[in-house]
């Protein structure tokens, strides 16, 4: 008796049937780009702890991936859901590539778009959308990650200028950025500043010996009496609501992106199990293997449906921050579990860069943590449901 034709992971939940024609076109375009420009090189980039940001940035710009769902200023102006789908396809190749896009568009560009003056938007956004100018986002400090309100970086008035001092850590694109969005304490709460990286007193040092997001540039920034003009400040951001609003945009991309990494792991594990023979029959023919695959496929499908639902809410301007936390918590947590389980199916081969699963699992350790740890999002959801804050 012949075996029935196997479904693909995508076909099991028929997610594609829920997409609009433009969204499907973006999905296929970005998937093709990743297959041609990222996948053939990503194992070497990961092993060598490098990523060709300057070379790929103009290509990302041509695709419209930077600030993709922002309107005007050279941005593509797509739906938020389309942007999420693009994140999914890029992160299916590697989380580091999606992080680079998120930092440029969802953090640096969004800060200028949401909180900048019209002059600031005109000056920076078109070139950033094209990938001609690269940005980074300076919020996290060595001693202040989950509690950004405690930051020590400070900007003080000196006549009509600002003088910036402090440091930031874990800054993606920090050593290759042309401009940094830096958040600092002032006498008027936390404010954001547009800081050209060639400013006297600006230093960026690449961080090495990472075991996660190796195909991503990560830096420590320091500011030593950087003098900035008055119009370097983002006028419409005052307090933590400014940087947190940008983080919510980045988290949205992660909700989709993490499912891309999980999907890539599951596809690799299924293909391996179908061709690997153990005790004279395919590994895929064993009940324990099928149980793992079935459980992972169900969690992947649920995560994709959740991402799509949240995307539709965002497109209707109805997405709440607590719902973003639900998506980030669930999808990163399930993605890393899927990656780890796929590694068990591949056995010893799973620890090599010949297959993507442990690379994805290592990357997802960072994705699970940045833009709010799992614990932070649990407390956000808990506060939303109980009305009581457990943060302090």
Summarize the topology.
Layout: H1 9-13, H2 21-37, H3 42-48, H4 53-63, H5 80-93, H6 95-115, H7 118-129, E1 135-138, E2 154-158, E3 161-172, E4 179-186, E5 189-196, E6 202-206, E7 218-228, H8 241-275, E8 277-278, E9 281-282, H9 287-315, H10 321-346, H11 357-369, H12 374-386
Parallel strand pairs: 1-4
Antiparallel strand pairs: 2-3, 3-7, 4-5, 6-7, 8-9
Helix pairs in contact: 2-5, 5-6, 5-8, 5-9, 6-7, 6-8, 8-9, 8-10, 8-11, 9-10, 10-11, 10-12
Major sheet: order of its strands? 2-3-7-6
CATH architecture of the largest domain, by name, is Up-down Bundle
Count the E strands.
9
- Tally of domains: 3
GO molecular function, one term: glutaryl-CoA dehydrogenase activity
Protein name: Acyl-CoA dehydrogenase family protein
Domain Acyl-CoA oxidase/dehydrogenase middle: 136-225
Domain Acyl-CoA dehydrogenase/oxidase N-terminal: 21-132
Characteristic terms for this protein:
392 residues; alpha+beta; Butyryl-Coa Dehydrogenase, subunit A, domain 1; Butyryl-CoA Dehydrogenase, subunit A, domain 3; 3-stranded mixed sheet; 15% strand; FAD
Could you walk me through the main structural features you see in this protein, from its secondary elements to its overall organization?
The radius of gyration is 21 Å and the shape is globular. It has 12 helices and 9 strands. The strands form 3 sheets. The protein has a 4-stranded antiparallel sheet, covered by helices on one side. It is an alpha+beta fold and 392 residues long. The chain has 3 domains: 9-129, Orthogonal Bundle (Butyryl-Coa Dehydrogenase, subunit A, domain 1), CATH 1.10.540; 135-232, Butyryl-CoA Dehydrogenase, subunit A, domain 2, CATH 2.40.110.10; 241-386, Up-down Bundle (Butyryl-CoA Dehydrogenase, subunit A, domain 3), CATH 1.20.140.10.
